């Protein structure tokens, strides 16, 4: 019924057999048969070209589970097949039993025969294309297309072991379940001189080692990489700090013991580089003399030994039990010890608990090392007398991605937070009547670059939040303040000391919610902490107005402000979770002045209101915009987040919801917010701050974190560890780079549109294929959505 093109019928195979001596050959006759069932995602198609296929290995009772019901399980055969070619191509296949049964008993007997006995390449039976088109769940892929295999051995809770095959294209084949209790090959199909496999998946992996290089990952249990590149080897061979570290040092695997691929003559030869080699690997693949190979092998072995020894020393010496002996060690040995407080901080957060992910553990370790190195570099810079401001080029400030993605120069940050605006400087911007003598754009720029001293905030924040207009004088502001104070008291009177209103069920419910929220807010700050006399007294102080535990006077005023706001703002529908986090810094900045805190909070909430809508439409739009921003600014990070099912950006939700309130200390939050309120570059500069945090940790995320929950946990644990000044400097660079990129895309698009007619004319005159210029013309420019264009707006309506 749809309007798309009709799907052509899939060719379906009809197999016939022909015997010749000891060989059995299967031929295939194609017939067009309509297939109604849509198969799983397609895998790369095997090019037959009339080649013959030799069955090397087969195993029965390997199931696919289409649904959660056992009645739907599909039994089948897993097989290793060699395509006769030059060079030979090895295939990994899975065929349902129904396919073999349809071809007759003779066809099935060949797989049974292959399962029951040992075979080498000369004795294997010849077959046709292992999997014809249209077979549901069946697959046949080249080993060179297999990126990794995830193995899960049988346990008491999971009776059948499983194998998940991941392809280099990013696709994942159907999970295979090995029913070893039904298959006879585990004990009958053994190879001489090989250890006896414990389950079917292990037996298959053992055979795969004869035809490809298989690397067991040290980052994730059960993960095996097939023909890994040099970059993959380095990433997945990193030592996890366990009790076997000493054994790894004493027993390094020599090069001649690594798996090799058999050649046609039966002799082993080194496996050729995979097509997915890294650039570094490709550069090293050239021919070299035997002496240079020997030297490289010796140096490589020593480098592994020293690297493993260093990791083991760091693990042992950084453990809390080793701390008493550390002061007595030589200085070079002390350098192996991790930073102070690292272990205690991880233990407090459960970072080294029994169920901690090894990759998250390793990612945190890498981050701490990078941060320690960056702090040391900054200290050296300060010692050299460099007082130019915040540096953004570091192990955590990863801006090479900007230079690599286009030919535009990387902008420089303008922030200088070491020279905040003093009170006397702020006062000098006003005349004797209190009217500003400088432009508002200049004032916002200075606040963005330098920030404010705490004593200046009560004067400056009302301007930043729009409570006062920049064009008013002192008398006009005083008159407005008095009127606002009266209006606040009128709104507060709608509920305060009004028993009829206070007894309403919805009011009781809202006050209780606000009460609980306020008591959880900034309890370590002196304004909101419980007084010592209450904590020491047995009764805990005076009772709360809503029946909760006692609260000090500042917490009570905070509750009154939010309750009054609930009567003032009806659109949000009483959803106040998190609003106390936004109000408390304002209350502290204005030293508890209730009316001014209320009106500044009201203006702040006009900015933040989309974050608190019940349908979460505002948060969804911001996360979508951030997702699109990542796609434009860092495509590699975008693809990694897509691969790990993290494009929903849930790990950024808390950052944006309350403007990083819980990611920085209380004083740093006030410094961050006054920068955001300037709207100096963008009304949504908070998204560039979020991008800056991700870019600071992109290397750790790309290398170590491969699951959504790992990224979520890692980013949540960044709280109170992010450096504010470097993050804001990076956010500024990111915005300026984004602005450059938008202008460059617009320029190139206009040039392309203007030259379309000329290019079409030249192409019609050419008689041969496409030239380099043609290929460059077809490069797609990034799509700039309406959301992305709104990031360039810095004026509020």
From TrEMBL:
<feature type="region of interest" description="Disordered">
    <location>
        <begin position="250"/>
        <end position="292"/>
    </location>
</feature>
<protein>
    <submittedName>
        <fullName>RabGAP/TBC</fullName>
    </submittedName>
</protein>
<keyword id="KW-0343">GTPase activation</keyword>
<feature type="domain" description="Rab-GAP TBC">
    <location>
        <begin position="451"/>
        <end position="680"/>
    </location>
</feature>
<dbReference type="InterPro" id="IPR000195">
    <property type="entry name" value="Rab-GAP-TBC_dom"/>
</dbReference>
<dbReference type="Pfam" id="PF00566">
    <property type="entry name" value="RabGAP-TBC"/>
</dbReference>
<dbReference type="InterPro" id="IPR035969">
    <property type="entry name" value="Rab-GAP_TBC_sf"/>
</dbReference>
<feature type="region of interest" description="Disordered">
    <location>
        <begin position="1"/>
        <end position="26"/>
    </location>
</feature>
<feature type="compositionally biased region" description="Polar residues">
    <location>
        <begin position="13"/>
        <end position="22"/>
    </location>
</feature>
<dbReference type="GO" id="GO:0005096">
    <property type="term" value="F:GTPase activator activity"/>
</dbReference>
<feature type="compositionally biased region" description="Pro residues">
    <location>
        <begin position="1"/>
        <end position="11"/>
    </location>
</feature>
<feature type="compositionally biased region" description="Polar residues">
    <location>
        <begin position="266"/>
        <end position="278"/>
    </location>
</feature>
């Amino acid at each position: 019924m749809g309007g798309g093109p009709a799907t052509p019928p899939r060719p379906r195979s009809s197999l016939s057999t022909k015997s010749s001596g000891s060989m059995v050959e299967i031929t295939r006759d194609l017939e067009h048969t309509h297939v109604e069932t849509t198969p799983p995602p397609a895998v790369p198609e095997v090019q037959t070209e009339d080649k013959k296929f030799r069955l090397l290995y087969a195993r029965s009772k390997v199931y696919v589970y289409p649904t959660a019901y056992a009645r739907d399980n599909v039994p089948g055969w897993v097989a290793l097949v060699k395509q006769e070619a030059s060079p030979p191509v090895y295939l990994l296949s899975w065929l349902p039993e129904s396919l073999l049964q349809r071809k007759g008993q003779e066809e099935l007997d060949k797989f049974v025969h292959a399962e029951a006995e040992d075979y080498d390449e000369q004795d294997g039976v010849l077959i046709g294309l292992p999997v014809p088109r249209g077979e549901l769940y069946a697959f046949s892929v080249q080993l060179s297309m297999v990126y990794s295999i995830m193995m899960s051995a049988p346990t008491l809770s999971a009776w059948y072991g499983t194998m998940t095959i991941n392809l280099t294209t990013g696709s994942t084949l159907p999970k295979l379940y090995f029913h070893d209790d039904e298959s006879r090959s585990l004990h009958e199909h053994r190879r001489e001189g090989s250890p006896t496999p414990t389950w079917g998946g292990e037996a298959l992996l053992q055979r795969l080692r004869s035809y490809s290089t298989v690397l067991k990952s040290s980052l994730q249990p059960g993960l095996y990489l097939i023909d890994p590149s040099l970059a993959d080897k380095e990433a997945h061979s990193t030592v996890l700090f366990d009790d076997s570290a000493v054994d790894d040092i004493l027993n390094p695997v020599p090069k001649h013991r690594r798996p090799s691929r058999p050649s046609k003559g039966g002799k082993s030869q080194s496996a050729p580089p995979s097509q997915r080699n890294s650039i570094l690997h490709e550069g090293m693949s050239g021919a070299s003399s035997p002496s240079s190979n020997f030297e490289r092998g010796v140096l490589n072995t020593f480098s592994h030994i020293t690297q493993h020894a260093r990791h083991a020393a760091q693990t042992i010496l950084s453990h809390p039990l080793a701390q008493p002996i550390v002061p007595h060690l030589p200085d070079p040995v002390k350098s192996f010890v991790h930073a102070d407080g690292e272990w205690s901080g991880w233990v407090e957060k459960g970072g080294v608990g029994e169920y901690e992910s090894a990759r998250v553990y390793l990612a945190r370790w890498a981050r701490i090392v990078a941060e320690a190195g960056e702090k040391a570099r900054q200290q050296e810079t300060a010692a050299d007398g460099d007082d130019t401001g915040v540096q953004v080029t570091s192990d955590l400030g990863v801006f090479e991605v900007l230079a690599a993605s286009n030919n535009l120069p990387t902008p420089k940050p303008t922030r200088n937070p070491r020279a905040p605006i003093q009170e006397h400087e702020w006062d000098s911007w006003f005349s004797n009547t209190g009217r500003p003598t400088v432009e508002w754009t200049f004032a916002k720029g200075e606040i963005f670059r330098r920030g404010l001293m705490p004593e200046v905030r009560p004067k400056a924040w009302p301007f930043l939040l729009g409570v006062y207009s920049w064009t008013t004088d002192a008398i006009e502001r005083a008159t407005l303040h008095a009127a606002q104070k009266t209006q606040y008291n009128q709104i507060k009177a709608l509920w305060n000391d009004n028993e009829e209103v206070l007894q309403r069920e919805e009011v009781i419910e809202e006050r209780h919610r606000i009460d609980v929220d306020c008591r959880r807010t900034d309890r370590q700050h002196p304004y909101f902490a419980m007084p010592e006399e209450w904590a020491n007294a047995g009764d805990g102080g005076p009772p709360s107005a809503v029946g909760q535990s006692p609260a000090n006077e500042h917490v009570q005023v905070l509750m009154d402000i939010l309750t009054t706001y609930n009567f003032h703002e009806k659109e949000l529908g009483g959803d106040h979770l998190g609003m106390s986090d936004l109000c408390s810094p304002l209350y502290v900045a204005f030293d508890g002045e209730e009316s001014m805190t209320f009106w500044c909070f009201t203006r702040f909430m006009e900015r933040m209101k989309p974050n608190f809508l019940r349908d979460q439409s505002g948060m969804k739009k911001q996360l979508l915009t951030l997702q699109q921003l990542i796609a434009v600014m860092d495509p590699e990070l975008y693809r990694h987040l897509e691969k790990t099912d993290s494009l929903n950006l849930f790990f950024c939700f808390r950052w944006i919801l309350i403007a990083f309130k819980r990611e920085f200390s209380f004083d740093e939050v006030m410094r961050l917010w006054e920068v955001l309120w300037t709207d100096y570059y963008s009304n949504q500069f908070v998204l560039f701050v979020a991008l800056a945090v991700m870019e600071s940790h992109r290397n750790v995320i790309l290398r170590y974190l491969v699951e959504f929950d790992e990224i979520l946990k890692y980013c949540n644990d960044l709280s109170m560890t992010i450096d504010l000044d470097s993050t804001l400097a990076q956010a500024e660079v990111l915005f300026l780079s984004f602005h450059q990129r938008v202008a460059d895309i617009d320029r190139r698009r206009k040039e392309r549109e203007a030259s379309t007619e000329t290019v079409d004319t030249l192409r019609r005159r050419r008689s041969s294929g496409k030239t380099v210029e043609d290929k460059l013309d077809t490069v797609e420019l990034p799509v700039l959505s309406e959301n992305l264009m709104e990031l360039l707006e810095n004026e509020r309506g």
